[in-house]
Design brief:
Distance between the termini: 82 Å
Largest sheet: 23 strands, parallel
Radius of gyration: 34 Å
Helix content: under 10%
Shape: elongated
Number of helices: 1
Length: 620
């Protein structure tokens, strides 16, 4: 049987294994297990069942085993009317809350093993807490932090009776779990859920080397209502469930060594889950399989009933700070099926990895469920988003979705697909690297305002490269006009422009020299169309290379001819006593290293029309 404590504010220090079955702590009590071993078997623990201000502590190496546990469990009221067939009676009960209850597991060696799940704040349970600190360990089959209850209405009638039931919706607010300190752990063989059905403002905080593990997880999962109706000659019935939202819930992993290891899927803001947050900062780490951020449901009507629309709006993932990382072994889906204005922010050295990514995925069923204005932003030195597959931005039912890269941030993927009305914004200081092809002539837009676009495959659709922008690629379909910097190959390569190439007066063509192997150690560029030259040529030494006297480099094949010359030819510094001979640059595209002549000889050479570039041109 249960050991029930109902007394006002007293402390019992347990020093022996004195409890052999589950119990209920209520009446404003405080109970402490201090350096004990206690086996309750599968019996449950209830701290504050429809009751407030109770505290249970397992400290100083205590070891406790139990079944399921609730910390702050309230009650949802109801009303029930029964007509003549049931005596014309009305039954009802009010909702009862359970507030400010706490369970603490503290200290190295302190351990609580629950063979079932742990609930913190259930059915009108508010401001309840579980704390795992200073090297303590909690193990359970799953956990729910802030679980509300959807309301239910039903009506049944027949020729002889009628019955109406109404169960109330009840929220659970401001419940929390804290896992803090090196060695502190909460391990779960099942899923961890923060803010369920009608749970608002609930949180899990993992810090200072604490570890949370689970087989799945959700943050902010509401419920979209539904109704059904049936009738026959003798009777009819109808029933409905109220829509309930779960808002402002959060899970934070902060500090070096702090982790959430999630072996399953992660859901953030699902089915009327709005304004929920996953925050990874200051070296925290989160791992999971797939992730869905912001997902609703389209409303539907059927012959036997209907389902209400659900939304997943304004949810966000923030990965901030050097060492902070979020690793996804599968797909990231940001904004799906009535999921709008959701975001992922990667900043100040944070990193995110995924197998693939979708930003804004609307759908069509019996009605349109859009996914608009979802956004991924990567900014700050060292901040990275690495996607091994494709980044897909928007579809036919999703617009205003965006990937933004700027200010030292970097994004790497195989390819990017941009649907109409959606965009990629690459600003000053940002880098976008693609291992496959890229066609800028997509239904959506690329705003290449600055930064670096590096493509290993074929680049098509570009007509103009803006000032402050840098393009690195070995294969380009022209015509192409350069106002920024064009660097053929994203490392030394034998590159080609299929069509004409114009280096405008404010444009720069950059060629790399790192050895004597054409296409492997130094760049060569073939232009099949006309080369229009007005801007600068920069010759850049890489990997510590310094050419010797007599070395010749075949930099260009001008298959379509050349019009004009480079306004400036800038080179990294040659070794002492050497200079460039560029007299064949506009014919066969070669440059040669020769001895630097004396001043007098140099004057004579200029008079003969031979163009030399001295080693003193400033480095790039």
């Amino acid at each position: 049987m249960k050991r029930k404590i109902r007394t006002a504010m007293f402390v019992v220090a347990m020093t022996a294994a004195s409890i052999t079955s589950g119990y209920e702590l209520s009446g404003g009590a405080i109970e402490t297990f201090d350096n004990t071993t206690t086996n309750m078997g599968t019996e449950s623990i209830a701290v504050g069942n429809q009751n407030d201000d109770n505290t249970l502590q397992f400290i100083n190496g205590s070891k406790v085993q139990s079944g399921s546990a609730s910390i702050g469990s309230g009650y949802a009221g109801y009303s029930d009317y029964r007509s003549s067939g049931f005596g014309g009676m009305t039954y009802s009960a009010p909702s009862v809350s359970a507030n400010n209850n706490t369970l603490i597991v503290r200290g190295a060696g302190s351990q609580w093993i629950s063979s079932s799940s742990i609930g913190i704040g259930i059915t009108h349970g508010n401001s309840n807490a579980m704390v795992v600190a200073d090297g303590a360990h909690v193990s359970s089959s799953g956990g729910n932090v802030g679980t509300g209850r959807r309301g239910y209405y039903s009506r049944y009638s027949s020729s002889s009776s009628r019955r109406t039931d109404n169960d109330y919706s009840t929220s659970s607010i401001d419940n929390s779990v804290t896992v803090t300190g090196a060695g502190s752990r909460w391990d779960n063989s099942g899923s961890i859920n923060v803010g369920v059905t009608y749970g608002n403002g609930n949180s899990i905080f993992v810090s200072n080397g604490g570890i949370l593990s689970s087989a799945g997880g959700s943050i902010g999962r509401g419920y979209a209502g539904s109704s059904s109706y049936s009738s026959s000659y003798y009777s009819s019935s109808s029933s409905s469930y109220s829509s309930t939202s779960s808002t402002n819930n959060s899970l934070t992993v902060a500090g070096n060594g702090s982790r959430w290891d999630n072996a399953g899927a992660l859901s953030l803001g699902i089915m009327n889950g709005n304004n929920n947050t996953l925050l990874i900062e200051n070296g925290g780490v989160v791992t999971n399989a797939t992730a869905t951020i912001g997902q609703g449901r389209a409303s539907s009507s059927y012959s036997w009933g209907s389902s209400s629309a659900g939304y997943g709006n304004d949810n966000k993932v923030v990965v901030d700070g050097e060492g902070s990382s979020w690793s996804n072994s599968g797909n990231i889906l940001l904004g799906n099926n009535n999921g709008n204005r959701n975001s992922i922010s990667i900043s100040n050295g944070g990193t995110v990895t995924a197998d693939s990514m979708e930003i804004g995925k609307g759908s069509y069923s019996s009605s349109i469920a859009r996914a608009d204005n979802n956004r991924v932003e990567v900014s700050g030195s060292g901040s990275r988003l690495d996607v091994s597959g494709t980044i897909t931005i928007g579809n036919n039912y999703a617009t205003g979705n965006e990937l933004s890269v700027s200010d030292g941030g970097a994004v790497a993927a195989e390819t990017i697909s941009i649907a109409s009305g959606n965009s990629v914004v690459l600003d000053q200081g940002g880098t976008l690297s693609l291992s496959g092809d890229f066609d800028s002539n997509q239904p959506g837009s690329l705003s290449f305002n600055g930064g670096v676009l590096s493509v290993e495959g074929m680049v098509s659709g570009f007509t103009t490269l803006n000032a402050n922008a840098r393009l690195e690629t070995a294969n380009l379909n022209g015509p192409f006009i350069v106002h920024g910097t064009f660097a053929p190959g994203n490392s030394p390569a034998d590159s080609i422009v299929n069509g004409s190439l114009t280096i405008a007066s404010d444009g720069t063509l950059e060629m790399e020299l790192g050895g004597y192997g054409l296409g492997t150690e130094y760049d060569r560029l073939t232009v099949t169309g006309l080369g229009e030259l007005e801007g600068s040529l920069d010759v850049v030494f890489i990997d510590g290379f310094a050419p010797t006297n007599g070395a010749s480099f075949d930099l260009f094949n001008w298959d379509g001819g050349v019009n004009g010359t480079f306004s400036d030819i800038n080179s990294s510094t040659l070794p002492e006593g050497l200079s460039w001979d560029t007299s064949n640059l506009y014919t066969n595209g070669t440059v040669t290293v020769i001895p630097e002549p004396s001043v007098l000889a140099l004057v004579g050479i200029f008079g003969s029309g031979l163009w030399l570039v001295r080693r003193y041109f400033p480095p790039v």
